[in-house]
Structures are given as structure tokens and as C-alpha cells.
Amino acid sequence: MTDWSKTALLIRESRGHWVGEAAAAVHAAGLRAVLLAPPMDAAEWAAMAEVVDDVVAVEDVHDAAALCTMIRGITGGATPAGVLTGSDGAIACTARVAELLGVAHCPADAFVLAGNKFAVRQVLAEAGVPCPGFALIADPAEAGVVAAEVGLPAIVKPVNGAGSNLVRTVHTVGELVEAYRLLAERLPESLDDRYHRPVLGRPGAPAIDPAKVFLVEALLRGPEYAVDVLIRDGEVEPVEILDKPLIDEHKFELALSCPPAGLSEERAGLVVAAASAAVRALGLDNTCAHVEVIDDEVSGPTIVEVNAGRPAGSIMPLLAKLRTGIDVIAESVTLALGIPAPPRENAKLPIPLGMLILYPPCGGRLAAIHGLDEVAALPEVINVITTVSPGEVLSDEQETYGVNLVVAGFTDHDDLAALHAEAAKLIRFEMRDGI
């Protein structure tokens, strides 16, 4: 008979390598891991069954009340040890499920707020935390007024987007009109469910249609950093700072490195202070967050993204673990479950490390990735990790990391760029479906 008080429920929205890592952390805590996910084919089901103790099919992972009713039916009314997720689009709903089940450790409203980029900027601005100028655009006819309010050049993005999906830089009112029309055309066709659900934010504020209303924010100029933070009982602990020296025209990051080259202790302190102030202003506690900061040449460290309820994506947590000994994923699992923090190891590679990201050159269904052995043989490459699988449909508008390399032995950002170029020549993504 299942002891549900020692069982953690993992809610998955779509494919994601986080499930195996989270399940391992759950098991290390002495608990069972049961995955709730939309129906999947037999091969994927078998793969998931290897890393969790059970898999339960769920038609809709975004209906908190229905999920709670289903969970109570599965458990016979017993309360599970906790509920957690690593899926961006399911974070707010999972938090609401945890509240309904009585196992929440951070208010669901904080995650709802964090999922609305416009609402986040409102709260940060009111709290005096630096963020870029911002406004919503709901009609191309508003482009002139919005441009005057925010200033040009500017960034246009979905109000609840992730992975740099359909992020555009505009320099003129005409380009802002074109960007609006592009997003209004493409988002209703997106396979990502988040763009087909109303976006809530602050309690009492009207919902936003993410396929019709977009965020416009002032373009910042300066180096960009990423900070993972843990928040436990009100105490904010930064784990690691990475910089993003290589960004492509889609705003996709091509490389990250830690520690950031040339970042003084004083500037690092300001970056961390901005990230810490942001998570506090948003009411986050007993959770983790991935915060992105641009050290703007005018306003200084300025918040550009707060991804609440999850650490950085892909293998960034691995870099942090190698350099600091802190397992951010295991820490986030214990925070979600309200159990003591996991033991910390000594840093295995407390040296400068980098991460290189290689993307498919076009969208389509992935058939195979070639050149992995060749790139692994490069002397600077420590590890090669793929986070996509054959059969998966990939979009060239989405920042989906295809091949990820952990590298060391580079001297500066130019060296890292040269290494990325060399690796890119070796990797080939074979795509199907005629794309």
C-alpha cells in the first residue's frame, strides 16, 4: 500500500529533462516520485518509468481544481508529501494545486504574478527595483504612443513568453507595428499552450490575452548576467553568477561563462543585490528563481527576467554544481517539499567554466544529431549533453538548447567565441518533415 505522506508528485507539462533530475533528488530524500503528465507514446512512457516510481496520465495539467480532485482520488484522500514541477507553463498551476492540497510552501499568487512579465515590472517599479521602461501594446495603432512612452530602440516580446520566443528588437515606430503584427500572427498558431490561456497577474487585475497583447520595454545596453537564487524562510542565497558574452540576433544565448570575465567584486555585489531585491519584492519564499540582469550603462544592474519556481534551464545548474558544490535542482526540490536542504558537496571544478549552446538551424522534427563524438574529442570540452530527442518537434523561434557543451581552458570571451565556432562546424542536426 502506497504511503502518500512519503510520495512527491511531479507535474510535467511537456517533454523536459528536469524530470529525471528532480526524481533523483526526491529519491535521495527518501521519498517516492510519481509523475503526472499528459498522455505519451509507449517509448516515452517507458523512459519516464525508468526514472520515477509511477506515471499517471492527466488530460489537462493547467486545471488546478481538476488536478486536485484527481490526486485526491488517486491517494484516497491522503495528502502527498508535496507537489512540484520544472515545466515553465505549469509552475503557477502546480503551486495552486499545492495550496489546495495543503502542502504549499510559497503562495501561489507569487507564481501567478511572476508568470506575467508586465505585472512583474509594475511590482518592481513600485518597489524601487530597477527595471526597463515598459508598456503594453494591444493594437498596432498604439505603436506611436507606446514608442513615445517607452523610448526607442525597444524590445517586443510575449507577456508570458519563455525561451526568447518571438522576441524582437525595434528601432522605429514602423518596426514596432511590424513586430506587433508578427506576434499577433504567430502566437495564435503556436503549439505552446501558454499562449492560448488568459494571463493573470496581480490580484484583481484584468487578465491579458497573450496572443493579442504584448510587452514593449526599453532596450538596455550593457553586459548581461544570470543569477540563480535560493529563498529559504526569507533568506535569499545567490548560488552563482554567469555572464552571457555571446547572443545571436534572436536573443538566443550561445555561450555562458562563470565567473563572469572582468566582473569586479563590487559590480557582482550590485548584480546580486538587484536579483535579491527582485525576488523579495515579488513575494517569493521557500522556492528558487532564475534572475537575469543587465548592468545598464545608465541605470546600472537592471532586472530583465525573473523565472520563479525553477532554476536555470539546460545544464546551467551543472556548471553551478561543479563550481560551488551546490545542487540547485536538489535544493529546489527540498524547498518545494518543505524538507531540510540536501547535503552540499565540495566544489569539483572551482575553475572558470563555460557552457556552449548549439541550436538546430531550422525548425522541424529532429531525426538525429551528428558529430557528438567529434565535438566531445575537443580538448576544451569536459562534457556533451543533449536535451532534445529524435522525434521531437523543434521551432527555430524558440530557444531550445540542442547540444550543450561544458568547457574549460578558455582564456577570454574571444577564445570562447572561437571555440563555439569550431564546435558548430562539427555538429549537424538532421531534421525531417521536409523542413
Could you explain how this protein is built, in words?
This protein has 435 residues and is of the alpha+beta class. The protein folds into four domains: 4-104, Rossmann fold; 133-218, Dna Ligase, domain 1; 220-349, ATP-grasp fold, B domain (D-amino Acid Aminotransferase, Chain A, domain 1); 351-435, Aldehyde Oxidoreductase, domain 3. Helices cover 31% and strands 26% of the residues. The protein has an eight-stranded antiparallel beta sheet. A four-stranded parallel beta sheet has the order 3-2-1-4. A four-stranded antiparallel beta sheet has the order 5-8-6-7, with helices on both faces. The radius of gyration is 21 Å and the shape is globular. The termini are far apart. Pfam families: ATP-grasp_4, LAL_C2. Residues 121-337 form the ATP-grasp domain. GO terms for molecular function: ATP binding; ligase activity; metal ion binding.
Structure at a glance:
With 435 residues, the protein is of the alpha+beta class.
Strand content: 25-35%
What is the averaged pLDDT score? Answer: 93
Distance N to C terminus = 50 Å
The strand order across the widest sheet is 13-12-9-10-11-14-18-16
CATH level 1 name of the largest domain: Alpha Beta
- In the predicted model, the low-confidence regions spanning at least 5 consecutive residues are none
Known CATH architecture of the largest domain: 2-Layer Sandwich
Work out the helicity level. Answer: 25-40%
User: Number of helical segments?
Assistant: 13
The total beta strand count reads: 19
Characterize the largest beta sheet: strand count, sense, and whether it forms a barrel: 8 strands, antiparallel
